[in-house]
Records
---
Amino acid sequence: MPISLGAANALVLLALAAPAAWAQTDFYNTDRGRPLTTEDAMVIERRAFELQAAPLTFQRVRRGVSHWGIAPELAWGFAPRTQIEVALPIAVEDDGTRQRALVGLAGLEIEVLHQWNTETTTLPALAIGAGVHLPVGPLAPTRTIPTVRALMTRTLRWGRVHLNAAYSLGDDLVPSDPGAADATRWQAGFAVDRTFVLHSLLVGAEVIAQAPLIATGAIEWRSAIGVRQQLTPRLAMDAGVGRRLSDGDAGWTLTMGAAYAFAPPGMPGFNRGAR
């Protein structure tokens, strides 16, 4: 029997409200860059862990110039509505002028994200985050970059709307800094997504604007689409494609990865037989 859009949204809200179903609905909880840069304002359950095991990103800057990256990340819900994330980005840069591409650690990222409230009929879900990008590795920025973020998510009849904003503190980087290509002074994103509950599938799209962390950089606009699929109660896969919209080379970005959720034995939502 066909399911109505209102009933589908009700099922989603019920699934999110039930702790025992958290692992099965992980596809609904999007992360930064997985699959879109703009993420929702929800954090993982207290005492739960989520491992971004193989988040691969390929970026074609222009003809003959490309960047590869992989950033394993572990998130831990160490307090109510609060998680800490640790990521170890590894970059591969090929500018077409070297015999071999540059490969190296591109820093160490640590962030605390706190969700202020649970979404209600009158209030959207709100969250704030604070983190640092540490100068660890040959392809990392030469100084520590602190960043603060604000996130909002609102559920509507047809899907969800997300707004993200981020600002990095400190002096500008010089253009020759190893981390200058990826560092931003500020970033703002708008995204929408829709879930297909019976298929454990989420589809989303976004538009973001960002200013580089260098004095001579121009504001860049990008768009992207992405999907996230729950394969098992603990494993979700994602993929996305993005394109630069502003003036300059039409750079393309492709992402794909997997998220594995787990928790100490006996935590609701993580049955011993789940795989």
---
Amino acid sequence: MKKVICHITLILIGVAISVTSLNGQKKKKGEEPEGYKFTMETTVPATPVKDQHRSGTCWSFAATSFIEAELLRIGEGEYDLSEMYFVRKAYEMKADKYVRMHGKTNFGSGGLAMDVLHIWKEFGMVPNEAYDGLAQGDSLPVHGEMDAVLKGYVDQVIKNRNRTLTKVWKEGYNGILDAYMGVVPDKFDYDGSTYTPTSFADGLGLNPEDYVSIGSFTHQPFYAPFILEIPDNWLWSSIDNVPLDEMMELLDHALKTGYSVCWDADVGEKSYDWKKGVALMPSTEIEDLSGLERARWDELSESEQQALFYDFSTPKKERTITQESRQEMFDNYQTTDDHLMHITGIAKDQAGNKFYLVKNSWGTGNHIYKGYQYVSEAYMRAKTIFFMVHREAVPVTMAEKLDL
């Protein structure tokens, strides 16, 4: 008991010192906090940052960036592939499934990286210059109205007022997509040659069958695939399941051997600070306080409390993320499938803490990192839904256990 009391006392002393220090910093005009300073340990080449703008299509931007990096990796040069081609094909497939399921499945703009692999396999892909999906004249995707119109359309089809579905409902649906996104070309000219989406994809030197998705959850058996139970998995794709430490081993092994990683994650934490370019899982020991100690903590203003946990002016102590704590966050909806991004490197901060360099699809307007962000190892352990990687990036022992 004495050890516990001492521990709590030390926390409170630390809180008092931190608040005093923060208040003192405010008084010193012109003095800038040191901030995080990162040193890269390994990086994988990637194409320029893009902007999904006002659309829920991060899954396509992340997976397309990942494929573009794969083309760089195998020496095929820099490509600007069409995210909106994958989005358009996904909308078509979602409508068919939604109607067949009588509306009892998810229909919306969201999706997963595996959607891109499936579309690539079934329909090919195209360069952005052949199909940018911007038929409305916008310079960036704006999908709010289109999403609402598409949802209203398929809901009316499902109501089945004619007591039988017409044979033209899909034509009407595709007409809406054509109006908002443009007609998908059957053939197009690119770099002096004529292609179909399939022939273009076939000539790139990559195979959609060579990619695997891996996560870590205890509600399913390890070393086996399972259908990931999240709303945006409308395609009912499977991921392979491994223990948490092995999932992180996979991430490090991939990046250190020249493979980038497509990342599905939760970005809803207050400690995910896009503008400052840092994502952390700050220590939450204070949350365990009770009684008098909790009352003293509660006497601090909200801004002082926020400053202690969400101030990124200097390296912070972070939570220890275990398999159990990670699962609890997922089970309680504290970790949800929010956003997909592209991991391209490993870095260390000035205190020696490991971070991962993540390419986002929100443009280049954040802080000094121009569309990238540094995500701590603790955040990665806690908030990862799954990684998608080339099968050759999976460590041999893990590949054997998963029969890859």
---
Amino acid sequence: MTTAKTVSKDFGFGEDEAMLRDMARRMLSERLPMDRLRKLVAEAPEPVYDKGERAPWDTQLWSEIVALGWTGLAVSEAEGGSDISLAGIAGIVEEVGRHALPSPLIPTLMASLVLRAASGEVAGQLLARIAGGATASLAITNDRGSWEPEHAPLIAREEAGALVLHGDARFVQDAFKADFLIASARLGETFVLCAVETDADGLRLEADHIHDLTRDQASAHFQGVRVSDAAVVSRDAASVLRAAWPGLLVLVSADLCGASERLLQTTVEYAKERVQFDRPIGFFQAVKHPLVDAMVEIDRARSLLYYAAAEIDAGIDKAEIAARMAKSAASDAAAFISDRAIQLHGGIGFTWEYGLHIHFKRNLHNQALFGDGVHQRKKLADLLIGPVSTSPNLGRDPAAT
């Protein structure tokens, strides 16, 4: 007789998780206030936008984050990490989104989840590196944002006891901050995951032009990159990525919820202070009602987010459904509050100096990353009721799967 897996009543978010979240909030509030963030990423954007230079970030703050052990949050204690539940990690990532932290933390956590799903000796060694402060990112999607085997971004061939990789992986997050990439490739009839150092011969990173200045994104071009057997993470990449995908959606959803909450709070504070017709503008229903609607949407997304994290922590097989619901709700809530925040701030909301655009652009990027709300609902329909049509041209979506 087997025992049914259930989600804990508090979503696995107990005192330890709350303490970590509160510590992250205090630290980031002190070390990365809005004026510091604005000076860091928005004071001189021309080199990034016009010349393709690297997005700026605070390496000293990153050293403090490493010292706090955040890179090892998803790494087991046996490999030098803290093995925090995904619900606890989501709480910290919410604060990362709230403060729009420019750092490779989220892609490193994503790589950790993939490596954890892969298990094995090679994955364990890489996780130990991450726990020690190494950074990583995923190079697993093609130009349509798909990771699935039939859309593998890279082709591998065996040559003299090694794998040789060719092809282009797209949408690699914070690639220029990563020490190594977890790349997926088609090898004959198999689908493999490999670890590739970012300074490997034959690997070229090409910066993508994106509007979000709190991160960088690149296309990774593999031209004869050699990978030894000691760097092959898994020869069943499809199973690994399918198992890790709900966790990746949870991390992006947490970032969205945090940034959206910051936009809501900023707009509420402004509505209390800005006076028009001898009253604070928050007095008027045309301002109050959208803010209440935004609060409800963000709270709904956050509830789905932590439920999905709790299902993953509990090992529930259908956690992908909850994760896609969370990403759908978080993307829609982010779109709504981003629009209303700019609108309700009036003229000042459009200015570069005010800084509202930083979280606005971060939300835009995260909405599309791994598929927006519409895409997630299409995938949910497939999971719950099956594909609507077998036509190859009906229901196709260029967003990530």
